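Q: what sequence does this backbone want?
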């Protein structure tokens, strides 16, 4: 349950951060560093990052975002799937 809450929170925060950065870019204000945006995906907010990228049309043309955000999303989905597999098999961790 705690893991599910964590993933919901990190993905919501990632999507919000992309929206906020896009808004600040339009207003020519101080921006969120790209490292922070990418870190959100690495910490488990990949789905929120992807949604933020494509809904707000933000960072979609940057190569590192095109590669890293989907990669981290796939890795986290695989990790969750593997943990669920182990849980269903009765392994304790």
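A:
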């Amino acid at each position: 349950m705690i893991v599910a809450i964590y993933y919901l929170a990190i993905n919501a925060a990632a999507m919000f951060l992309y929206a906020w950065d896009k808004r600040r870019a339009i207003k020519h204000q101080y921006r969120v560093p790209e490292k922070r945006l990418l870190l959100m995906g690495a910490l488990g907010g990949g789905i929120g990052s992807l949604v933020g990228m494509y809904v707000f049309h933000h960072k979609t043309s940057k190569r590192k975002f095109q590669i890293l955000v989907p990669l981290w999303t796939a890795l986290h989905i695989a990790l969750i799937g593997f943990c669920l597999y182990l849980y269903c098999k009765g392994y304790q961790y």
